[in-house]
Each structure stands twice: as structure tokens, then as C-alpha cells.
Amino acid sequence: VRGRGSLRHYALAGLLSGLAIAAKYNAFCVGAALFLAHFLGFPWRTSSWKHAIFNRNLWIGVALILVGFFLGCPYWILDFGTFYRDFQQLRANAASTDYLFAHLRPQNPGLVQLAGTFFPTILGIPLTFMCGLGLLHALWRRRPQDVLLTVFIIGYSAYIAPHNLVKPYYFVHVFPFLFLLAARTCVSLADRLVNARFRPALLVCALA
Questions:
Q1: What's the pTM value of the predicted model, to 2 decimals?
Q2: CA 80, CA 85: separation in Å to the nearest integer?
Q3: How many CB atoms neighbour CB 97 within 10 A?
Q4: Which of 7, 128, 152, 163 could form a disulfide with 119 if both were Cys (CB 3.0 to 4.6 A apart)?
């Protein structure tokens, strides 16, 4: 969507986002990424806000989010009453500390607490450090795909950070992107700082 912006890419992004949300409701931010990619990639120099908002490809993608959600969870239409009651129960469970999930109650909710306590507790300090380096590296590169990933990760984290109860599975759709950025940074550092003969060994140690 960000690079080419063809109807096929919007349609696939929308359909797969809908399926992801049906599998895990808090993956709604994946659907929000469609809007983010659209507006970041829109040719603003030759078009206006009106053309960006009322773009046909964008709204076909949004419609296919609903189609994908229906394919993955048809009962939100076939039996909406039961779906709504189950959804409300899930919300109550998510706010409970008795729901058999690891959780963290930060004393001072916010991004600093999230980065300084939550991620090190869940991922470990070394991996958290590499993920942080990956984010900084992406911000430094400032390529379109890096901007999209960093805005998505930081934006979602900023949304979750003020919550008084944070659980690891809230970030199940964010961790893969963080790990990709961390891995790319490891490879980039190995290329710059280590003799070619020792690079494979260094990468194996990083993975370990």
C-alpha cells in the first residue's frame, strides 16, 4: 500500500487485516495501519485532502476488513447478541488479574514504564535493548517503510501505555516487527564492525 498503492494491495491488506482482527480482537491496530500506510504514501504534492480521504482504493480496503472479519468470525452478523455478550465478557476478562495470564500493574503507567519495566520483564534486557536499537536505527534511516513501522509500533505502545493493567499478549502483533528491526540492526552492525570471517559466529551468538 505504501509503495505502489494499487487496488490489489489495498484489497489484500484489508482482507488480511480483517482475518487478523477476527483471530485476536486487539489486532485492530493492524487495520489502523492500512490508513497510516495510505496517508503516508499518498502523493500530496499533486492531490488534496479530499482526494486522500475519499480515495476508492482506501474504502475498498476498509470494506474488505469487514469481509475478512466476517470470514474469521461470522457470528458478529449471524448472532450479534451472543457475539456482543461474549465480547463484553472478554473485555471483563482482559481487565481481570484472575484470568490465568501474566500481567503487570505499573505504578506510573506510561511509555517510560513500558520500556523500562514491562519489555525487559517479558523479553529480557538484551532483547529489549536490541529492539530499542532497532527502533532508533529505523528512525535514523527514515525510509518510508521504516517510518510506517516506527509510527505503528510507537503509536500502539502509546495507546497501551496509560493502562493500569498490561498483559504480554497485548503486544503479540507488535513483537514480530520489533524483532525484525532488531535483527536488521544486528546484521547492519555486524557488516560495519566485524571482520567478514567472524560475522556468522557473531550472528549465531546474537540469536542465542
A1: 0.65
A2: 9
A3: 10
A4: 128
